[in-house]
Amino acid sequence: MRAAWYERPGPAHQVLIVGTMPVPWPAPGEVRVKIAVSGVHRRDAVKRHGRRGPGMTFPRVIPHDDGAGVIDAVGRGVDARRLGQRVWIYLAQSYRPFGTAAEYAVVPAVQAVPLPAGVPFDQAAGMGVPGIIAHRAVFEDGPVDGRLVLVTGALCTVGRAAVTMARRGGAVVIATVHGPSRLEAALAAGAHYAVDVSRGGAAARIGAIAPYGVDRVVEGAFGADLAADPEIVAHGGTIAVHSSDRADPAVPYRRLADKNITVHFLGHDDFPDEANRQATADLTAALRDGDLWYPVAARFPLERIAEAHAAAENGSPAGHIVLELDPAGARPDPA
Fold this sequence. Notes:
Layout (H helix, E strand, L loop, with lengths): L1 E4 L6 H4 L1 E4 L9 E11 L1 H8 L17 E8 L11 E4 L14 E5 L3 E3 L6 H4 L3 H12 L8 E4 L5 H12 L3 E6 L5 H6 L4 E4 L5 H8 L4 E6 L2 H4 L3 H4 E9 L11 H6 L3 E4 L7 H17 L6 E6 L3 H10 L5 E5 L2 H4 L5
Parallel strand pairs: 8-9, 8-11, 9-10, 11-12, 12-13, 14-15
Antiparallel strand pairs: 1-2, 3-4, 3-6, 3-15, 4-5, 5-7
Helix pairs in contact: 2-12, 4-5, 4-11
């Protein structure tokens, strides 16, 4: 099969190799997916650089956690009726060496989630990491029906999913964006209110919408927002942090403690199994219903994976970055 891999950490154009490898076979409890589209995230580039965690834990790594395609083989113990099923997959390269930047990927059967007819592969292929994080950020402290939920950076990949999950959960959603031109896009994504934080006074404008404070914050810029968050969060509220612009920001303990604010720091790989199951079910339903939609910012063939990683590292608020392994099957919207 065609695949991309690296055998040492480093810059994409120096370490990523595109070539051929044997086609894998699923072990008991696993499925093999013929990949149509592989999602590319900044997290994939961070792992390739070896900047976080233990570095290279396998001698060869096929990158990318997320993807979508069709099950073409099943391991022992997996229902054979899953053969031919359209699926999206998540955490393919979490604690495993081989991800979705290949024509075939093998994952535990539970991590291959049935994809409803009518949902294009490119919509589901990059949803796993940001979508599951968003779901956890919104619901870790329980239902949000009737609550006020603030989503910062609402047009990033995590933010879009968080807006959708919170709205579908019955929350009143306030979104923040950078720049007045993005306000309408945030409202179109499902937010009830949108606030431009590129000019001063954002905390006061949020306060005018939520005079008693917001109940939950889905926070993607922890360091930058630390000064304002204690001001806009309600007594007993929560802040779920999925990203920070600073590695070691100074936490205003007293201001947070005086309002009994809980701060959750969310990783990417180790949420409880039940949380992942609920997240994948809710995200799939949102895709099916058309409530969650991602613009595709850039498409690359496998041979240009280094360019795709560079695009992910530079950040793409415009939407997904994807590799098309099967261009003929990647874009159509099957009935």
